[in-house]
Amino acid sequence: MSEKTIKAVKAKKLADPELASIDPATQEMIRRAQQLGIETVFDRAETLKPCPIGIQGTCCKVCAMGPCRLPLPIKGIEGEDTRKGLCGATPNTIAARNFSRMVAAGTAAHSDHGRSVAEVFLSVARKETQDYKIKDVAKLLQIAPCLGVATKVVVDGEEVGRDLDEIALEVAEKALNEWGKTGGELLYLKRAPAPLYEKWKKQGVLPRSIDREVVEIMHRSTMGVDQDYKNIVKQCTRTSLADGWGGAMLATDLQDVMFGSPSPLESEANLGIMKEDHVNIIVHGHEPVLSEMIVAAAQSKEMIDYAKSKGANGIQLGGMCCTANEILQRHGVPPAGAILQQELAIITGACEAMVVDIQCVFQNLANVAKCFHTKLITTHPIARMEQENVIHIEFDEHHALEDAKKIVRLAIDNFQNREKEVMIPRHKATQIAGFGVESIQYHLGGTFRGSYYTLNDNIINGRIRGVAGVVGCNNARTRHNEGHITLIKELIKNDVLVLTTGCSAIACGMHGLLTPETAPVYCGPGLAEVCETVGIPPVLHLGSCVDNSRILLAATEMVKAGGLGKDLCDLPVAGSAPEWMHEKAIAIGHYFVSSGVYTVFGYHMPLEGAPEFKDYLYKGLEGIYGGMWDCEPDPIRHAHKMIAHIDKKRKELGIDKARDRVLMDMADRQALEI
Ligand code: MSK
Q1: CA-472 nearest atom, ligand 1
Q2: Does the beta carbon of 577 lie inside 6 Å of ligand 1?
Q3: How much distance in Å is there from the Cα of 502 to the middle of ligand 1?
Q4: Which residues contact 376 (CB under 8 A, 6 or more apart)?
Q5: Are 626 and 237 a contacting pair, CB within 8 Å?
Q6: pLDDT (tens digit, 9 = 90+) per residue, 217-263?
Q7: Which residue ranges in the chain fall short of pLDDT 50?
Q8: Does 377 share its domain with 501?
Q9: Packing angle between helix 229-242 and helix 91-125, nearest 10 degrees?
Q10: Is 73 helix (H, G, I), strand (E, B) or coil?
Q11: Are both 332 and 474 inside the same structural domain?
Q12: The pLDDT of residue 672
């Protein structure tokens, strides 16, 4: 960077590192970036303010007569709300259209990721690639019937197991068909509790195919089509269900079958996992198809020897964003950080290569990489960057390991090119990650009982007050990690067990909340007792963004275990995304709401300009699906809104009063009145 540019950057208003983040490693790297005159997202958040009308949700850009901007009338002016766009679109219509397009984009992102995974799975089933295998046969056999694939055949009058290759091929074909089939409904919807499925059916919101629902939102929200916000929300429901109970759930399942279902393991988190004397490779994005192969390449003797021949002591692989969660939960590879730390990993001066695929990748990485020796490598045909210093190595599942080795070799060759002083923050924390539906069952139910027995029992007896899913991004408009950590500490203090995914899970890892030792320090007495007895952390890391489907299935298992109602909306549970920013978060939030879960977002929701529409999302939907949206920027108040909802559900279930411990079997629990 030239002297002139450095002066220009320095003349701008810069972020105060301590106000920007609660994490000391992040603060250190923001300071270093500012000393070097390198701009990061934290500084840009100071200089670039959000559009005051867009933030209210009432800026309409769907035709060239606009943008029509309809902010709320200035306070004090009374009378009828006469705001309308050139075509007459009301604030409700505009805000609902904008909201629906976020649902469509979020669904498209998760589901296109899922489609790529399904395509690789088909290659594996057809034996067109040797680099990937089916690692989890039990999971394959578990999901096959959900896709209508038989796992047994009758031979000579006897039922025998069907050939695994045949099952895999049929699963792959049936799964891929979910994206574009022309009739019927998504096959996974029947995995939901029966009353919920019936509710969706009655409302006419059963998704037909994943792609179709996304296309229909884009059609309905274009100029002059759907002009009834309630009808638009109906399509939001249908589309988001195609995400949560479709594309995202299929992505999780097929990844588990190919790469192995996670089970709890120990690792570390934060920028301090990078090592000065190692070749540091950061893999960033979302699809584990690439990162699985990078892990295999980086751990190979051939590559480690090659790194040593170049003067390094080894190869340190680190993850960023949800790729981090994918390789953490299956291999224990430590996350170097979450979304807001991607630029900072390069600013350490020790990042030989940052390898990115899809989603949540800042374009400014290329500008930061230019100031260091770091090779920035894009790998996906749909996600390239315009800057000249970016290298594109297209990744192909048919020669996946070869591509991965090429990338790792490039990083190793770059080790000797470090120009600036290396400055890796020392901060990192130990974490236990890799929980899933099956491992929760093992820890809080046991394979012997084969259900969520212990979890339900402890909710009924009050040791555990309820369960919260806390998920989602960081947002540079809020203090990095403060929302996640303050909220989660308040929840566990009040005996609420937390399930977490995405960047929220990385935040928890960085701040030491993912160890069993957390329980006696931060939890209320009931939750602490349960965690100490079974040896789990009070905050369970369930994976990446697409793995929110694990939370849906875990909640479904709670219904099946009995005693807590017949539907997801009966459970004492709540959802949250305290620092959300991505459109994917809106799709996730809406499928949780449509599945019956009270879901609170932090920061703000782009709804303030359309109070009626907002009211419908925050109150009206409860009467239809049992779940509703809410928003609360203050993390303590946010936690207490969730706790109040959990308490309301406990009261409805009749488990709000302390009672003597009664040993119940499943039939007793199912007979409990709700
Ligand atoms: S990476 S979508 S910032 S959670 Fe899945 Fe994090 Fe949000 Fe991206």
Answers
A1: 4
A2: no
A3: 6
A4: 353, 354, 356, 365, 366, 369, 385, 389, 390, 391
A5: no
A6: 999 999 999 999 999 999 999 999 999 999 999 999 999 999 999 99
A7: 5, 673-674
A8: no
A9: 20
A10: coil
A11: no
A12: 58
pLDDT at residue 61 in the model: 97
User: Whole-angstrom Cα distance, residue 122 to residue 276?
Assistant: 41
- Tally of structural domains, the chain: 3
d(CA 398, CA 251): 19
User: 233 and 323 in one domain?
Assistant: no
Q: Encoding tokens for residue 662?
A: 């009664």
* Confidence (pLDDT) at 80: 79
CATH (domain of 622)? 3.40.50.2030
Helices and strands, counts by H and E, the chain: 29, 18
Helix (H) or strand (E) holding 615: helix 611-615
Cα 313 to averaged position of ligand 1 atoms, centre (Å): 32
Examine the domain organization and report whether 302 and 407 are in the same domain: yes
326, 448: one domain:
no
Q: Is the CB of 339 within 6 Å of ligand 1?
A: yes
Ligand 1 mean position to 262 CA, how many Å? Answer: 19
Looking at the CA of residue 286, tell me the nearest atom of ligand 1.
Answer: 5
pTM (global) more than 0.90: yes
Residues 451 and 310 in one domain: no
**Is 389 inside any structural domain?**
yes
Task: Please identify, among 259, 293, 322, the residue that sits at the C-terminal boundary of a domain.
Answer: 259
Query: Do residue 353 and residue 455 come from a single domain?
Result: no
Distance 670 CA to ligand 1 centre (A): 38
Domain boundary pick from 259, 288, 309: 259
Cα 606 to averaged position of ligand 1 atoms, centre (Å)? 19
Span 418-470, pLDDT tens digits: 988 999 999 999 999 999 888 888 777 665 556 788 899 999 999 999 999 99
Confidence (pLDDT) at 444 = 75
Residue 673's pLDDT is: 47
For ligand 1, say whether the CB of 582 is within 6 Å of any of its atoms: yes
The reply to whether 451 and 394 lie within a common domain is no
The reported pLDDT for the residue numbered 7 is 60
Does some domain include residue 278? yes
Atom of ligand 1 at shortest range from CA of 584: 2
Residues 124, 134 contacting (CB under 8 angstroms): yes
